């Protein structure tokens, strides 16, 4: 069993796409995220206990997606690994925080421990309070990043379900990307972000995760290119997973 790694908690205050709360951070630490631009529906109360996940940053990082308040995003607190099984503990950033009463998906981002091979299948054993779930992630032979190595600070994205993905970008933790609109079908889609040149942002370089949903049948998740427009994020990203 690898020695548990306590990840930095400063990113836990990033909020939903519609409700952004900033905080400072350091690259490679756990980072909460924005709510999906189009929230996928849950079939029953039991579905709110389902946890999804994705590999990001060319295999260096992962995202864990839970349901709850958009303004109280859990943070990755402890991560350890035994072979390809990675134990992940999520905790609430502030037990005394006043949270909005909405129910959305939120992504918490953490770094894979040294020794885990992202080109092979990985099982995340996630616990969050009384909720526990295993998330099986397919490895990607094209990943060239090594857990524990330095990031290249380039955007990356991974599927978390039919038509829904996590987008990881890098920049000021107090100015998380805000989705203005999404459109897509087949093997291509576009996410447009709000551009606000008057916003004052901290000068840190932090991972920011944004959930984006296109719909169950709208896109081909086997080969999909996402074009980013606005918000200083212009470019394209190949969605993996």
Structure description:
- There is one protein chain.
- The protein is mostly beta strands and 241 residues long.
- The protein is 0% helix and 42% strand.
- It has an 8-stranded mixed beta sheet, with no helix packed on it. Strands 1-5-6-8-9 form a 5-stranded mixed beta sheet, with no helix packed on it.
- The two termini are 26 Å apart.
- It contains no helices and 16 strands.
- The protein has strands spanning 5-6, 33-34, 52-56, 61-68, 75-82, 85-91, 104-111, 122-128, 131-137, 156-161, 164-171, 179-185, 188-193, 206-213, 224-229, 235-240.
- Residues 1-30 and 32-39 have low confidence and may be disordered.
Give a short overview.
The protein has 241 residues and is an all-beta fold. Helices cover 0% and strands 42% of the residues. Strand 12 and strand 13 form a beta hairpin.
Spans of 5+ residues with little confidence (pLDDT < 50)? 1-30, 32-39
Rg estimate, integer Å: 16 Å
Q: Report the major sheet.
A: 8 strands, mixed
Alpha-beta classification: mainly beta
**Mass-distribution shape:** globular
Give the helix proportion (percent range).
Answer: under 10%
- Helix and strand sequence: EEEEEEEEEEEEEEEE
Q: Strand portion, in percent? A: 35-45%
